[in-house]
Amino acid sequence: MNDPMPGITRPSQTASKTAPKTLATAALKTPLPASSKGLRHSAKVIKPAAACVEQVDTRYLQSLMGYNARRAALSIIELFLERLAPYGLKPVDFSVMSTIGHNPGVTSRQLCAALNLLPPNLVGLIQSLEARGLIERKPHPHDGRAVGLHATAKGQALMVQAEQTATELETEKTAKLTPAERKTLLSLLQKIYL
To answer: What's the pTM?
Structure first.
């Protein structure tokens, strides 16, 4: 027979001649005993015993900055969401309102840069806060194309209470830290993202 690719050996040509006999290939060729042929479907498959973990080892995760920062943040955010729910403020709403309150006349562009927000996300948020009567837009004193954002009297009153609540809950969640440790932790975290 003419081989279209002379000199190239295919597995099927050499398997029966050169393949070593292994338990797997031997098992395929070995017929089942007559007594076991009817038991194929009823035979039990023996599974290895499940490992029993006495104590979970998370040392590697605990060595990661991201893991620890996220665990700490989630712990605080959970309480934040609970305590600030009466004010109708989510973390991003709180951040925007606080920044506007402490920087009257701040522009949307400045807010995006300061809080690392995408402009399309901020547009809807500004509209929502404005609809609630918490902020208002005023012409920018130096740039005729821009508008400055200002907290209304209602927004200012809300943020006085909301910021006090946020301060209290953070003090509660960081009670295991000394004031010096808390200051150091804040400084180190800011070194990462600023």
So the answer is: 0.69
